[in-house]
Amino acid sequence: MSSRTSGRGGRRHASGRHSQAGTRGGSGGGQHRRPAPEREAHPLEGKTVELSIDTLALGGAGVARMPEGPEGTEEAGMAVFVAGALPGSVVSARITRVHRRHAEAQVAEVVTPSPEAVEPLCPHFAVCGGCPLQNLDSARQLHWKERQILDALRRIGRVEPGAVLPAVPAPSVTAFRNKMEFAFQGFGASLRLGLYAKADPGRVFDLASCAIFPAEGSEMVDAVRAACREAGLPAYDRRSGQGLLRHLVLRHSVLEGKFLAQLITAPVPADSSPAQAIRAMGEDLLKRFPGLAGFVHAERARADGLAQAERTLLALGASALTEGLEDVRYSVSADAFFQTSTGGALALYSGLRDMLALAPADVLFDLYCGGGGIALFLAPGAGRVLGLEANPAAVADAEANARLNGAKNCRFLRADLTGESAVPERLPEGFARPDAVVVDPPREGLDSGLIAWLNRVKPARLAYVSCNPATLARDAGLLAAGGAGEDGSFDLAAVRAVDLFPHTAHAECLALFTPR
């Protein structure tokens, strides 16, 4: 699973960085600022050095130490982050940037392969940026992710977990994704539909197959690409604002064995020839692929790269799939949030259930509840469950899923989860004080106002679902330290790594906090 919008309500993986170029706002009075002087290149930049890769950093780069040159340099021993290098290997690497305390490098040649290296599963591995760790043994992927989590907790949060529970491997490392977003680029015979290239993140390459998505999905990608080329539909160019085709989003339900396709375009009149061509394409796809339950044409007007629809223009067949985790059912529309690995979600939620050990009378709060995924899974073991979420569409999805499951002990409310009133003071009857709380925040972690609330309320069990070890570690330190004028509130009782996203650098983790 970018920054995310509020938790499971709609995770968006974007950097969150803002351009510093251009004129700053405020009362500048027309004053001209001198441009910043050009940075002088470090003497080591551009040079090639031989490095022994010791470990794997957050983000997936291999980590080495700068060797000492024949005359000795002040950079000797400096950490070097080498993109694409695996632990245990020796590489010849070109230094691309030297910072004050570390350097960055690219692999020029593998001198000695890593004993942890394996043959990649996908023919696109050398080109695609989606699975950068696919050439690393899956068990070792999880080993290094667990190391990263523990290192972050100790280094950033200054906290030591009471127990490190056995890491949970991915149930499958192939065909495990239930959602893929494919991008369009070009026009005519050169129209491409696929994923972004590793070496050139702005360029889309044509996808032939994807090892982490069911094979029939790749066949649908081929069919959509061919139909769009034949119809002469151009890709949207956000720099010029011209063109039409933006993204193809495919969802797959493990429970039903069915797919849902969503074609996202720039705005187009419903009676226009492009819209009619898209309708014809959708009708043809539903005939050609028995596994395709529905086809949705939606639009997005904003000039960005997000694969998120703003308005549905056409729906043929089913508009949602049904997915299941044990006895719980979820309605998953084209725009709904659901964990992108169904098997991984079951492993994550089961681990959470074991960690919380809820009693039948317990009151559970699920914060950043999204479409109710965790709340509904845990509801059978709790007395009452309250889900809070900032995204109103996600709250509506959660309420619909509660009705689908007949979960009468669940309530869902909209709440910002930020600032002094992070959690509303007035809550429904029976929810005055939680016995247990689950938080599943975006990559940015918990808001300071919510941490203050948790330190005041001090539930008997606080479970933190994290997709970012760095912000988990920061928040763990704040939870352990307590708020202003308070003693430390929580101990970090246990942590457990969960490999929710095999072949990527993303490290998912469960952490259990208990009050002192």
Structure description:
It is a single chain. The chain is an alpha/beta fold and 516 residues long. The protein has three domains: 48-112, Nucleic acid-binding proteins (OB fold (Dihydrolipoamide Acetyltransferase, E2P), Beta Barrel); 143-171 and 340-515, 3-Layer(aba) Sandwich (Rossmann fold), CATH 3.40.50.150; 179-325, OB fold (Dihydrolipoamide Acetyltransferase, E2P) (Beta Barrel). The protein contains eight helices and 23 strands. Helix 7 links the parallel strand 20 and strand 21 (461-466). It is globular, with a radius of gyration of 25 Å. The two termini are 33 Å apart.
Helix-strand blueprint:
Blueprint lengths: L47 E5 L2 E2 L5 E4 L13 E5 L6 E9 L3 E11 L25 H20 L5 E2 L14 E7 L6 E5 L7 E3 L8 H17 L13 E9 L4 E8 L7 H16 L3 E8 L11 E7 L2 E6 L2 E6 L8 H15 L6 E5 L5 H6 L5 E6 L2 H14 L4 E5 L21 E4 L8 H10 L3 E6 L2 H13 L8 E9 L9 E8 L1
Helix pairs in contact: 1-8, 2-3
